[in-house]
Amino acid sequence: MAQYKITVDEDILKGLFTGDKGMSQLLEQVLNQVLKAQASEQLQAEPYERSEERKGYRNGTRPHPLTTRIGTLTLRVPRLRNGSFSTELFARYQRSEQALLLTLVEMVINGVSTRKISAITEELCGVDFSKSTVSELCKRLDPVVQAWNERNLRETRYPFVLVDAIVLKIREEGRVRSRAAMIATGVNEDGYREILGMMLGDSESQASWTEFFSWLKSRDLRGVDVVVSDSHSGLVKALQAQFQGATWQRCQTHFMRNFLDATPKHLHDELYGKVRAILDAPDVATARLLMNQVVSDYSEKALKAIQILENGFDDITAVLSLPERYRRRLRTTNGMERLNEEIRRRDRVIRIYPNRNSVIRLIGALLMEMDEKWQSGHKYLDMKEYFTWREEQKKQAQQLSKVSQLR
């Protein structure tokens, strides 16, 4: 990643504490310096520098307004004589910001906003928005988000998939209704995380989850070996029907909450440590020995909790069959929870979405931005050991099959 040397005017720094526009002025100055530095990188020469490596010349700048939640910034995008200047500095950021803005404006136009929302919109835009303006902006943004959310997944396999849902409030037919935004992320065969897609369902029912998984499969999702989720009954039943042969790992964090809810309070600390030892066991056999000991010691003291442990044992320890390096990442849906927190940051601004399209636009733009960040960052997992392990598992299965045939 390139490093840029940034200078900031003293007056702007003072404005951070004394003025209302200090933050926007600071960000505007920094971004313009980054654009200038990127132009030097592409030309391989500083302004007025004589260099044999120079690939072209500057031709002034053009203003480019960038709407953010701290105001509208004016960026001075460099022009080049022998070609076009390219940057992704604000393109990705703009999508989610524009989606947030459009949702706020849509609320104003539909008459469901408060004066506070109107004030936020005016502060962000600097101008009034008409229905035609909003419609035109949506025409530009919606196809981009929709194309990403419905992209074909055939180019790679996704051995590990994590799924979760977040409940949002949407105004439909004059009433506010709770709807489930179902989201799937995956780890591809190269070890990078991807957001596979989002779909709105009427609820977290088996029918909604079945439709979601069918949709993912229709986009050529393949190679799924392990699926991680909570134990919502509709979700689990849909998983078993749609991903037969895949291993289901129940989120250990959600399980521990359920277990402790059924545990007498005076035994919380004691049993938490013992169950934690089961989950951290080196293999399934050791985990089962530890569980049997807990069952023997606490069956009478915490009967309901022990029943939950026995019933859920196979599902919460499924990850122990994998090589050790993959267990920590795949034993919970904590990664999904962090993604949900980012969604909630936007959701707290909107509170009630004016329609379903606004949800797809806002949450989809955010997920698209996060997906690009994940794929351009570091690998989430090194998959070499996993594929070696898979080959060994197949060979062992083949040998066992031959032995059984001989018998």
From TrEMBL:
It comes from the Bacteria. Residues 47-56 have a biased composition (Basic and acidic residues). Residues 42-63 are annotated as: Disordered. Keywords: DNA recombination, DNA-binding, Transposable element, Transposition. Belongs to the transposase mutator family. Required for the transposition of the insertion element. NCBIfam families: transpos_IS256 (NF033543). This is Mutator family transposase. It comes from Alicyclobacillus dauci. The lineage of its organism: Bacteria, Bacillati, Bacillota, Bacilli, Bacillales.
